[in-house]
């Protein structure tokens, strides 16, 4: 049944009378009377500045707050409540943590506005305007130089003091006398990894095949080094370096370039085409560091015969003291990267830099943020990690003629619970993992939910860190642990589908952020010194293959569930 809608006719005069209510006629001359005059500058009140900046800054600061404060509070409370030891220099460590949070906030904002516009533009335009050899050369330089700008790479330079020069002489030599050689090897490894990742897009190589082809030589080299007593202590450092490199600078810059190359190679229809490069950036540095160790052993047969470092006991110059040293380190790290991106933009693409003021702001903020982070690393993260590592053994071992706080089995169990909680909490609070979870959930149409990915990765990291702590406490050899863990990961890789392989291996790199890496490194070195171990490396290596295994297992479960649902069966 239809209803008839009555319409009332309206005369045009009545319409004009209605719309002219409360109107005022203004001449065109009056409107543009001030067009030629210079506009008066607008002045912002403090209240206006607060309203503009507070919402912007608070969101970014809260991200760092959630990542740093829970870990710091957990370490401090565990030390006070469970180990009955006060935190030394609490005020200075608190200042260091604040510097870390402010530094990371500024640094990430600077990377967003000062580095990412370059990388995204180059990634999408360079493959179409330059020969493949030029693209690969730029990829190598980008990967290598970006490594020097990683905030956590500075933790390597502070790690030499926790190594026993008598039981691990070549490792101590590499960290104290030749740290630049170590960092250079890591940078070359990342550069080669990026090149191989680009070749993957050009030749449509399968990620599974590429991982196996890279992992097997890496494991063979690990076995060779592990069977040599001179090289065995370097294994943990080598595999830890793979975790250090995949941070907030390398990953976004390399992924932006990789997505551009994938689009140029006609693989833009693959939603997971960007995954996989982070994996290679974790394996190639391990190979590079082990090769450097082999060369160092051949070059210096007897480290004890090396003369002492000239000026080692002298007072450091003003440019080597805090906070000038941290600022200079930030300039050295970010300056070459900015120069490389600008040269590629100007001469390879032939385009001028757009929005120069915004880019300059990003560069300045990135340098300032990295300097603050380095300062917080020196006075906050590393001392807190060293204290935690040095005091944890008191739970199960007598020290300084006293008694252990708890019976041995209970103390060991408490220490492992501490490691599991630390690993789980650090992973859940990692902003990069949350962002990755959102991306994966969208790309898989909800088949792999964000919460499931975060939980799978967090459990893997937690168990891996616990295994690494147990390795230091009990003096286990690094070789069988690595071979066992990566053999399981290799088996899961062979059984899994292509997209889950790339996701699982990349998740291992995402979890090791700029806060977790220095803290865990300092924790391991402090723990190693407390229990009398030759070195305290290897915890990050264990924390890397743990999430690979857990994510692969979850991926196999999701695929099995989908197959069962498609057949209409049930789990019985």
Describe this structure in words.
It is built from 21 helices and no strands. With 572 residues, it is an all-alpha fold. The radius of gyration is 28 Å and the shape is globular. The mean pLDDT is 82.
Task: Describe the structure using short key phrases.
about 575 residues, about 70% helix, mainly alpha
Give a brief rundown of this model.
The chain has helices at 12-19, 28-31, 46-82, 90-129, 132-148, 154-157, 169-176, 179-203, 207-226, 234-245, 250-264, 277-299, 324-348, 356-391, 408-428, 431-443, 450-474, 478-495, 498-510, 516-531, 539-567. By secondary structure, the protein is mostly helical.
Which bin fits the share of residues in helices? over 70%
Largest sheet: none
Proportion of residues in extended strands: under 5%
Give the quaternary arrangement of the chains.
Answer: single chain
Calculate the terminal CA-CA distance, rounded to whole Å. Answer: 56 Å
Envelope shape: globular
What's the tally of helices?
21
Average predicted confidence as pLDDT: 82
Structural class: mainly alpha
Strand elements, count: 0
Order of helices and strands: HHHHHHHHHHHHHHHHHHHHH
Alpha-carbon Rg, integer: 28 Å
Low-confidence spans: pLDDT under 50, at least 5 residues?
none
């Amino acid at each position: 049944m239809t209803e008839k809608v009555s319409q009332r006719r309206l005369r045009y005069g009545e319409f004009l009378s209605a719309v002219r209510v409360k109107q005022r006629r203004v001449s065109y001359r009056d409107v543009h009377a001030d067009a030629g005059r210079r506009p008066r500058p607008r002045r912002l009140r403090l209240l206006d500045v607060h309203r503009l900046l507070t919402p912007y800054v608070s969101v970014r600061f809260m991200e760092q707050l959630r990542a740093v404060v829970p870990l710091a509070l957990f370490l401090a409370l565990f030390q006070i409540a469970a180990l009955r030891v006060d935190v030394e220099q609490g005020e200075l460590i608190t200042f260091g943590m604040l510097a870390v949070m402010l530094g990371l906030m500024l640094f990430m904002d600077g990377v967003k506005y000062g580095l990412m516009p370059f990388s995204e533009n180059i990634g999408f335009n360079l493959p179409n305007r330059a020969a493949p050899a030029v693209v690969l050369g730029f990829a190598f330089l980008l990967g290598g130089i970006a490594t020097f700008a990683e905030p956590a790479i500075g933790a390597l330079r502070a790690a030499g003091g926790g190594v026993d020069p008598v039981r691990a002489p070549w490792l101590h030599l590499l960290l104290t006398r030749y740290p630049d050689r170590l960092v250079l090897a890591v940078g070359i490894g990342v550069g080669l990894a990026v090149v191989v990742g680009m070749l993957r897009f050009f030749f449509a190589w399968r990620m599974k095949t590429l991982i196996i082809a890279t992992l097997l030589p890496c494991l063979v080299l690990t076995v060779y080094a592990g069977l040599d007593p001179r090289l065995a202590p370097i294994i943990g450092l080598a595999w830890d370096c793979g975790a250090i490199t995949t941070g907030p600078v390398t990953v976004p810059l390399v992924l932006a370039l990789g997505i551009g190359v994938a689009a140029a190679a006609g693989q833009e229809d693959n939603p997971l085409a960007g995954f996989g490069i982070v994996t290679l950036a974790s394996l190639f540095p391990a190979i590079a560091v082990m090769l450097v160790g082999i060369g160092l052993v051949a070059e210096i047969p007897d480290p004890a015969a090396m003369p002492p470092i000239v000026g080692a006991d002298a007072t450091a110059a003003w440019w080597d003291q805090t906070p000038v040293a941290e600022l200079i380190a930030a300039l050295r790290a970010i300056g070459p990267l900015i120069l490389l991106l600008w040269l590629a933009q100007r001469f390879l693409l032939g385009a001028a830099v757009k929005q120069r003021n915004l880019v300059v702001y990003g560069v300045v903020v990135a340098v300032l943020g990295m300097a603050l982070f380095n300062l917080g690393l020196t006075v906050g993260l590393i001392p807190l990690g060293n204290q935690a590592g040095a005091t944890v053994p008191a739970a199960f071992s007598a020290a300084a003629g006293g008694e252990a706080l708890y019976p041995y089995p209970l103390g060991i169990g408490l220490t492992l619970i501490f490691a599991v909680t630390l690993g789980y909490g650090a992973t859940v609070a990692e902003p990069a993992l949350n962002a990755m979870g959102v991306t994966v959930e969208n790309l898989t149409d909800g088949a792999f939910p964000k919460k499931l990915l975060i939980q799978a990765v967090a459990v893997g990291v937690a168990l891996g860190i616990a295994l690494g702590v147990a390795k230091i406490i009990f003096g286990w050899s690094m070789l069988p642990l690595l071979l066992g863990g990566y053999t399981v990961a290799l088996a899961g890789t062979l059984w899994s589908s292509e997209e889950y392989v790339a996701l699982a291996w990349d998740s291992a790199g995402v979890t090791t952020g700029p806060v977790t890496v220095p803290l865990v490194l300092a924790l391991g070195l402090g723990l190693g010194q407390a229990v009398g171990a030759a070195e305290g490396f290897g915890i990050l290596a264990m924390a890397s293959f743990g999430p690979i295994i857990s994510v692969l297992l979850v991926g196999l479960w999701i695929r099995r569930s989908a197959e069962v649902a498609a057949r209409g069966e049930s789990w019985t």
